């Protein structure tokens, strides 16, 4: 990755590296990168002053009558695109709105929301650094096709390592299939995407996304995980977008396809995006205190209390798809009860048992998934933690635990004492409608952003809710 201080520095690098095109990546509300490209010769100081215009309503911002916006590249985010056939320099861009002929940073730009949150925790004295470490779970597949018509509904997914291909005989079959739910850390020759992942990780490292490790995950039909090293809030938002871009394009290059869908298979583990977080002040951990529960400080416990108290509302940003709630069901290593515990994968918040040193002491939010806009998800999580610290929300007094037992195996009467996560996108939206004041503090999230998100996701819920499912025909057609 290249960080520049001025356009002149970029121009010199362009000449030196024989760059032909400059590409700008702009994020929309759903978390997808969009892009616009100019010839390298057109990159000049005017772009940094006036920006490049675009239709913000097409990105899910504002309304059509107030949709004229501009973007300006962040020169600290440059990297050479490894997939463009013509040598291309990439910059992530910031979004501005136009008011009285002046450009003003757009308050609902997800990157700006993250930037404001980083300033906010410093301003109120909670911490001077928040570090995030997501775990990216996804499936590497060999085929995906779908058709949804009024008279025809069909999805076909295939992975050459899937157990259902063990009897395939219309082409050469060498076996080496992975049993359902049997993929965790499988070795070669069963781990069919291993070389692809090595190549992807090497690209990520070269483009400024440091990787902790990668491995095969539980889902037999090609589920894997890449875990990245910790980074600051906006930095991790950038890294998340870059990881998805590099992963998906390298898959295409290798004749593969990848999905972060939380539940692409009905009877396999879903894809989560577990998010580790810890806070620091002047380089010292704010989450460690020897002798506390799991050696956590009061600050850490209050942060846990804030996140768990606001957990249902958070899900509009951490789990913003109807498919998200098909993953959050018992029996598939996904949390459904709002509680915390040490090394407890059945809890919404898990304190890693292996993180024993002050600098590594942290907790992990296990409910989010990869359909989230990363800037908004990480920011919402931080603001819930900040609210817990500010209001000294004790998770034990709130009834969130600690639970150091498998919550799934508790007696029903005991299990029902623990509040549950929303079971649908609609329930999450209703929770956010009732509980979003913690997001408005410091003018980080705007009421407009929150209401736009709720309106869009409710529409998606009702769209999916009205669709008949093929399984319903099997169950009810002949009644």
Task: Please explain how this structure is put together.
By secondary structure, the protein is of the alpha+beta class. The chain is 31% helix and 23% strand. It has two domains: 100 residues, Glutamine synthetase, N-terminal domain (Ubiquitin-like (UB roll)); 359 residues, Glutamine synthetase/guanido kinase, catalytic domain (Creatine Kinase, Chain A, domain 2), CATH 3.30.590.10. The strands form three sheets. Strands 8, 11, 12, 13, 14, 15, 16, 17, 18 and 19 form a ten-stranded mixed sheet that branches. Strands 1, 2, 3, 4, 5, 6 and 7 form a seven-stranded mixed sheet that branches. The longest helix has 21 residues.
**Annotated CATH topology of the largest domain:** Creatine Kinase, Chain A, domain 2
Largest sheet: 10 strands, mixed
What share of the residues does DSSP label as strand, in percent? 15-25%
Radius of gyration: 23 Å
CATH architecture of the largest domain: 2-Layer Sandwich
Structural class: alpha+beta
Uncertain spans:
none
Overall CATH class of the largest domain: Alpha Beta
Total of domains? 2
